[in-house]
TrEMBL record:
Keyword NAD: yes
PANTHER family for this protein: CHROMOSOME TRANSMISSION FIDELITY FACTOR 18, DNA LIGASE
EC number: 6.5.1.2
Protein name: NAD-dependent DNA ligase LigA
Domain BRCT: 270-346
Length: 346
C-alpha cells in the first residue's frame, strides 16, 4: 500500500501536478510530512513528482500526523507494516486490488511481455472472473474462457486470436524475466537478473536457503527472506505447477558466481562483461533500440542502467530530442554517447 499526496494542482516544467508518491511511512516520518502541509515539490528526473520537504515555517498547527490505514481500503483485511516502516501490505492474496496489480505486472513488457493485456484489460479480466491467479492467464485459451472473452465489449474474434498468439508466445520465457514477472517483493529487474545468473534455473533457486541467498553479492537479508517465503508458499507452488501444466517453459541460464567480494576476471570481461560496473543513463528517443532492448544489452555486458544522472554515472546516451538529463550531464562533465557511439561499445 503506497501513500499518495493529493496536492493543489501546480505547474512544474509545463506539466500539471496534482499527486505525488509519498513512498512509505518511513519516508513520511523522515521528512516530517503532515496532512495539510505546504510542501516543496519537484519532478524527479523530470518525470516523477515527489515531495522534497514540508515548509515548516508556515505551519498553522492544524496539520495532522499521517497514519497508515489499519485495514486494506479494498478488501478490509488488516494491514501489516514492516519493522522499518518501509512497507505496508495487505496480506490477503485474494484481494482484488492486489490481483489486478500483480496481473498487470506479470504481463508487462519487463515480465511475460503479453501485448494486448494492458492495465485496463488486466483489471477487466479480474473483475469478470477470468483470472483468479496468475496461472489463469494461460487458461484463457480454453474454449469456455474464449467464449466469455468474445462476450466482452471490445473483444472480437480477431483481437481474441491475437491475444491467444501473444499468450502462447510468452510461454517460452527467460529466467530473469519470469522471476521479475512473479512479483516477488523486493525483486525488481536487477535482482531478478542477479538471481538468474547465480542459480541458473528455477528449481535450484526454489530450494535455496536464506544463507545461500545472502552469500550472493547484492542480495541482502530482506530480499533473501522474501525469496524463501515465496517458494515456501504452497499457494505459490500450486500456481507454478499450473503454469508448467499449461506449457510454460522457463529457459535455464548459465550460472555465474556472484558471491560477495568476487572480482571479475579478465577472461569474464572478454566473454561479455566489458561494461562491468559501468552506469548508463538514456535520454531522448533511440532509433535502433527500444529502451528495454538498450537496457538489456547493457546488463548483458555487465553494466547497469539508472534513471537519473549523478556523479557516479559513467555514460549518458543521447537520442533525438534529449531532455534535461543532457543538461545535467554537461553540468557534471559526464561522458555522453550518440546512439552510434553506444552501438560501437558492443
Amino acid at each position: 500500500i503506497t501513500p499518495v499526496a493529493e496536492l493543489e494542482p501546480i505547474q512544474i516544467g509545463g506539466v500539471e501536478v496534482a499527486r505525488a508518491s509519498l513512498h512509505n511511512l518511513s519516508e513520511i516520518e523522515r521528512k516530517n510530512i503532515k496532512i495539510g502541509d505546504r510542501v516543496l515539490v519537484e519532478r524527479a528526473g523530470d518525470v516523477i513528482p515527489q515531495i522534497v520537504i514540508p515548509i515548516k515555517e508556515v505551519r498553522t498547527g492544524t496539520e495532522k500526523v499521517f497514519v497508515m490505514p489499519k485495514n486494506c481500503p479494498v478488501c478490509n483485511a488488516e494491514t501489516v507494516t514492516s519493522p522499518d516502516k518501509k512497507q505496508t501490505i495487505c496480506p490477503n492474496k485474494s484481494c482484488p486490488a492486489q490481483l489486478k496489480a500483480n496481473l498487470f505486472h506479470f504481463v508487462s513488457r519487463g515480465g511475460m511481455d503479453i501485448e494486448g493485456m494492458g492495465r485496463r484489460t488486466s483489471e477487466l479480466f479480474v473483475e469478470k472472473g477470468l483470472v483468479k491467479t496468475l496461472a489463469d492467464v494461460f487458461k484463457l485459451a480454453e474454449k469456455k474462457s474464449q467464449e466469455k472473452l468474445l462476450s466482452l465489449e471490445g473483444f472480437g474474434q480477431k483481437s481474441v486470436e491475437n491475444l491467444m498468439k501473444e499468450i502462447e508466445k510468452s510461454k517460452s520465457v527467460e529466467l530473469e524475466r519470469f522471476l521479475y514477472a512473479l512479483g516477488i517483493p523486493l525483486v525488481g529487474e536487477r535482482i531478478a537478473t542477479v538471481l538468474a545468473k547465480s542459480f541458473g534455473n528455477l528449481e535450484t533457486l526454489s530450494k535455496a536457503k536464506q544463507e545461500d541467498l545472502e552469500g550472493i553479492f547484492e542480495i541482502g537479508p530482506e530480499i533473501a527472506q522474501q525469496v524463501v517465503a515465496f517458494f515456501s508458499s504452497e499457494e505459490n507452488l500450486t500456481m507454478l505447477e499450473e503454469m508448467w501444466n499449461a506449457g510454460v517453459a522457463v529457459k535455464e541460464k548459465e550460472k555465474k558466481a556472484l558471491v560477495e567480494g568476487t572480482q571479475t576476471s579478465e577472461k569474464q570481461k572478454l566473454e561479455g562483461q566489458k561494461l562491468e560496473g559501468k552506469k548508463f543513463v538514456f535520454t531522448g528517443e533511440l532509433q535502433n533500440y527500444t529502451r528495454d532492448e538498450a537496457r538489456r544489452l547493457v546488463e548483458k555486458h555487465g553494466g547497469r542502467v539508472t534513471s537519473t544522472v549523478s556523479k557516479s554515472t559513467d555514460y549518458v546516451v543521447i537520442g533525438e530530442n534529449p531532455g534535461s538529463k543532457l543538461e545535467r550531464a554537461e553540468e557534471l562533465g559526464t561522458k555522453t554517447l550518440t546512439e552510434v557511439d553506444f552501438s560501437k561499445l558492443f
